[in-house]
Amino acid sequence: EGKIQRITPRRNDLVNDTWMTDSGRELYKSVTSKDRILRPSVKGQDIPMEHAIAAAFECLENKKIGLVASCKSTLEEQFLTKQLIVESNARTYIRGHFGQDDGILLSADRTPNLRGALITGLTNDYPKGDLLDLNEAIATGEVNALLVMGEDLLDSGISDERSEEHTSELQSPC
Question: What confidence score (pLDDT) does residue 174 get?
Fold first, then answer.
């Protein structure tokens, strides 16, 4: 009925038979998240995509842009993010998410697409588990506009006082 009820693995005897991590089974919940953006908007008003893109370019003109990319993004999103970085000359920040591996099937890398980020050139290095370098770039003025793609800044090591201290500098008038 047009609603994802669950995710199940496809059979692949060479890799994992039909095994799938619990975290993978839970991914469908993000599709219906209340935080998911469904339409482009400016100042809370829904607008056509081309107008939203034009407004974003206007807001970012003459800014020192930092772009926080995500290893959670799809390969297509990462490819487009890389194009945006090249066109805007943005400084790139990318965070890894890590946990314990089980030495068998569960990797320490908890992101669904770190390999895609490496393949697309979104990053050339294995990312750190935080964005502390971004704290320094904001403090020194190397970054005064920030685009964030699917990451939680506070969870990524950006300090509350740093974000409060520079909120007026980072917030767009748009």
Answer: 53
